[in-house]
Specification:
It is built from 13 helices and 8 strands. The chain is α/β, with parallel strands linked by helices. The protein has one domain (5-252): TIM Barrel (Alpha-Beta Barrel), CATH 3.20.20.70. An 8-stranded parallel barrel has the order 1-2-3-4-5-6-7-8, surrounded by 5 helices. The protein is globular and about 45 Å long. It binds 2-phosphoglycolic acid. Residues 10, 172, 177-178, 216-219, 237-241 line the site of 2-phosphoglycolic acid.
Length: 256
């Protein structure tokens, strides 16, 4: 089964709703209809900008997908500060990042929380982007495969294979995020192959072949093509460079 390329911009805690409107408009001017045939494009603004970006996408009939950076697993209730899957779904959100390393490191998202969020996103009819990645110490200790496949298996525990087939995995080595220090494409290719092998082991070959696996960590217009050339890399999760519509558009059009 052919996997369509997927390039996702993770804006993190950047952009007011007014700035977000401008960013998505500028992005749309820089992309051609043909680009969207080849690549699925998504942006993940902060919660406060989702409604505004949704309006631009709908009004201008843009093929850009809307994503969120996090979610709570409960549908409603006394969870001060949290946002539920249904709330995101009603804004036309298609993708939700779960388990980003910044969430794991700064907001206490452990494997159990990531697993709950993954199920909640699927239950609400959206697509989780399950992020996994090793620290520099773990890489140097030679435990990368164990760490990333462990994170992935924990996130997917108990999810039926046909549902696993619909989700997206992002391999983001922590030492490459926001540092300008990208993983060597060979290293990223190896880690993504290990993740696909882990998917085969837990959910079967057919499911593993259907899941899109992204690379993330200091992706820019100059290095994207080398990552996309790897057999098991189907796209990218882009942080810093996604804030600049020129750079992000150049990443989307990685073959140009
Ligand atoms: P970066 O972030 O591209 O700024 O390294 C990637 C991410 O955290 O998703």
């Amino acid at each position: 089964m052919a996997r369509k390329d997927l390039i996702v911009g993770n804006w993190k805690m950047n952009a007011t709703h007014l700035e977000a409107i401008q960013m998505v408009q500028k992005l749309s001017y820089r992309l051609e209809t043909d680009d969207f045939e080849r690549v699925e494009v998504a942006v993940c603004p902060p919660f406060t900008a989702l409604r505004s970006v949704q309006t631009v996408i709908e009004t201008d009939h843009l093929p850009i997908r809307l994503g969120a950076q996090d979610v709570h697993w409960q549908e409603s209730g006394a969870y001060t500060g949290a946002v539920s899957p249904g709330m995101l779904r009603s804004l036309g959100v298609r993708f939700v990042i779960v388990g980003h390393s910044e969430r794991r490191a700064m907001f206490g998202d452990d494997d159990a929380a990531v697993a709950r969020k993954t199920v909640a996103v699927l239950d609400a009819g959206m697509i989780p982007i399950v992020a996994v990645g090793e620290s520099l110490e773990q890489r140097e200790a030679g435990t990368t495969e164990e760490i990333i496949t462990g994170q992935l298996t924990a996130a997917l525990r108990g999810i039926a294979p046909e549902r696993v087939a619909t989700l997206v995995v992002a391999y983001e080595p922590i030492w490459a995020i926001g540092t300008g220090r990208t993983a060597d494409p060979d290293i990223a290719g190896q880690a993504t192959a290990q993740l696909r092998a882990a998917l085969s082991a837990t959910s079967g070959n057919e499911v593993a072949a259907a899941v899109r696996i992204l690379y993330g960590g200091s992706v820019n217009p100059g290095n994207i093509a080398a990552f996309m050339a790897k057999r098991d890399i189907d796209g990218a999760l882009v942080g810093g460079a996604s804030l600049d519509p020129d750079q992000f558009a150049a990443i989307v059009r990685y073959w140009v």
